Amino acid sequence: MTTRVEASHFSIKIMCHEWSRIANGNRQEKKPLVVCFGEMLIDFVPTVGGVSLAEAPGFKKAAGGAPANVAVGISRLGGSSAFIGKVGEDEFGYLLAEILKQNNVDNSGMRFDHGARTALAFVTLRADGEREFLFFRNPSADMLLHESELDVNLLKKASIFHYGSISLIEEPCRSAHLAAMDIAKKSGSILSYDPNLRLPLWPSEEAARKGIMSIWNKADIIKISEEEISFLTCGKDPYDDKVVLEELFHPNLKLLVVTEGSEGCRYYTKNFKGRVAGVKVKPVDTTGAGDAFVSGMLTGLASNLNLYEDEKKLREALLFANACGAITVMERGAIPALPTREAVLRILPKVAS
């Protein structure tokens, strides 16, 4: 494996020109579809930072759920996306379906459960912008999606099928998740996995570790955080390339990306590895930053399905993804903070200045 140097100011200018060209090209051309599977919920975020839930004077309501965030993020960036999942047949569920529609996300794969409520999550913001979660889902509608409710035709249209691990926790959603992966894979989709560890939702740490790893070897693309590496490897050094390659890089994997927050990300393929610097901003709320990063990465992949074979183009796409994440942390909430392509292109030239 080889490691490349950081992008120069000149290469960033070229990259911005290329992203603009793609954005302003033939808009009638059919774009590769990214189908996102899993949970969608309502996040309640305190109106002030650095306080506990009990101390919060009020909350801002925002749509959330990692797979849904990614679907909206891709659409905001000019891509084509769809969401498959289940919400309650209630006002929050209808609101979430409408938010997807307003953001040009295909919501035809959504299902509504009349017996269970839409999931809620209260998210505390510490002084450093990091989050703590309190979930209300016992059970929530997203856990009750059945295999028979899957939109098979939509799955077969996917160029990329993206998912997390929360939908693996309970039946019947787990079986629906596995069936959706199988349909997408057999139809030629690239499988994209972001484990998105949420320990409070799992019965135990061991159950979480086992559940997340149960589908690990089926993914083509995996995005993971430093914290998740430590968890999945039982405390091994997340910065050690040897740990990442020996413990987490499997033979079928095309690309493994490790996010490091404001420090940027690392990437690993069968032929090369390296690091791309982050975009420095003052964080307000890190909710949705990882999802914004995935949105940027998958938007690049959708425009070039062999992106992981070209290190220069991969690095450009990951720098773009880093900028997506950086913009998102400057506003509270996940979906409300997700950037447009124009916002990302405005911030990128400042990276090397």
TrEMBL record:
<dbReference type="GO" id="GO:0006000">
    <property type="term" value="P:fructose metabolic process"/>
</dbReference>
<comment type="similarity">
    <text>Belongs to the carbohydrate kinase PfkB family.</text>
</comment>
<keyword id="KW-0418">Kinase</keyword>
<dbReference type="InterPro" id="IPR002173">
    <property type="entry name" value="Carboh/pur_kinase_PfkB_CS"/>
</dbReference>
<dbReference type="InterPro" id="IPR002139">
    <property type="entry name" value="Ribo/fructo_kinase"/>
</dbReference>
<keyword id="KW-0119">Carbohydrate metabolism</keyword>
<dbReference type="GO" id="GO:0005829">
    <property type="term" value="C:cytosol"/>
</dbReference>
<comment type="pathway">
    <text>Glycan biosynthesis; starch biosynthesis.</text>
</comment>
<protein>
    <recommendedName>
        <fullName>fructokinase</fullName>
        <ecNumber>2.7.1.4</ecNumber>
    </recommendedName>
</protein>
<keyword id="KW-0067">ATP-binding</keyword>
<dbReference type="GO" id="GO:0005524">
    <property type="term" value="F:ATP binding"/>
</dbReference>
<dbReference type="GO" id="GO:0008865">
    <property type="term" value="F:fructokinase activity"/>
</dbReference>
<keyword id="KW-0808">Transferase</keyword>
<dbReference type="Pfam" id="PF00294">
    <property type="entry name" value="PfkB"/>
</dbReference>
<dbReference type="InterPro" id="IPR050306">
    <property type="entry name" value="PfkB_Carbo_kinase"/>
</dbReference>
<dbReference type="InterPro" id="IPR029056">
    <property type="entry name" value="Ribokinase-like"/>
</dbReference>
<feature type="domain" description="Carbohydrate kinase PfkB">
    <location>
        <begin position="33"/>
        <end position="340"/>
    </location>
</feature>
<dbReference type="InterPro" id="IPR011611">
    <property type="entry name" value="PfkB_dom"/>
</dbReference>
<keyword id="KW-0547">Nucleotide-binding</keyword>
